[in-house]
Amino acid sequence: MLHTLTFDFWGTLYQRAHAQDNRLRLLEEALDRYSRPRPRAELEQAYGHAWSVWDRTWREEHRSLTVEHWLRHMLTFLEVDLPEEALTKLRQPIEEVYLRGDAPQPVPGVVEVLPRLAQRYRLGLISDVGLTPGRVLREILRRDGLLPCFRALTFSDETGMTKPLPGQFLRTLTVLDARPEEAAHIGDLPETDLAGARAVGMKAILFLGVSHRQDGRPTADAVFEKYSDLEKLLGELDQEQRSESQTLGRRTESHGPALENQGPVDG
Q: How far, in Å, are 8, 24, 36, 42, 214 from residue 39 at the CA level?
């Protein structure tokens, strides 16, 4: 029986958001302040380069880059230096850009469905962060009234690892006092969310409402596109799990005597 659900953040609970313009403006202002201006086109190219490094690190090394490292990759691409104090001052505004401007919005249905699920299941969050750290994502969840729904929050910038590494899932389950076979993870990316959940023995549920990753269907235990369908899907998955347990129990009982008489293999 399912007792525990864990969710991905970006593309699952929240719409994907982009803050390129705001972050480039912050860097542009810092470069101007220290008499090191660069054309906007170059800044955009540097932004793309830094994100390619971030993406490669995430996919191949299974960790997130800090804002400091991201900024250094941009500056190296631009062939320009900034004083250490300037980098330090840039870090917080870049991290908190969603607290100062247009914040990401919950996927339709999340705000209504999640509190109901929290009454029936132990809920956890497992998120790979980009330039927006866990402390900021907590504030976004609090803003939308969703923070109290979660008993465990796991962010890659705080653990030093990303999905699909088993540690992200097992750490969260430990906090939730749950076994993998009692839990399901809900996410939008087959290579991280589904692969990681299945590797530790959790059910893997694919959300298609944002990323539309149809290629994940073969590896998912269940699939949904709208949050209005999630509660029914969980009920069906739970019933399926109960049936499997009952079938396994009957098989164990029917084979019991034969197993008892087998003795040690190397006897």
A: 37, 11, 10, 5, 40
| Predicted local distance difference test score (pLDDT) of residue 247 | 62
Q: Are residues 90 and 204 in the same domain?
A: no
Domain with 115, as residue range(s), is: 4-14+105-247
9 and 90 share a domain?
no
Question: Residue 242 is encoded by which pair of tokens?
Answer: 């109960």
Q: Which residues lie closer than 8 Å to 128 by C-beta, 6 or more apart? A: 10, 58, 64, 156, 162, 163, 192
Q: Is 258 exposed, middle or buried (0-12, 13-18, 19+ CB in 10 A)?
A: exposed
Q: pLDDT below 70 — which residues of the chain? A: 244-267
| Residue closest to 141 by CA, chosen among 119, 114, 160, 120 | 114
Q: Are residues 176 and 192 in the same domain?
A: yes
HSE of 131 in the Cβ direction (CA atoms, 13 Å)? 27
Whether omega before 164 lies within 30 degrees of 0, making that bond cis, reads yes
- Please give the full DSSP string across 39-68, using - where no structure is assigned: -HHHHHHHHHHHHHHHHHIIIII--PPPHH
Give the pLDDT confidence score for residue 250 in this predicted structure.
Answer: 58
pLDDT tens digits, 40-50: 999 999 999 99
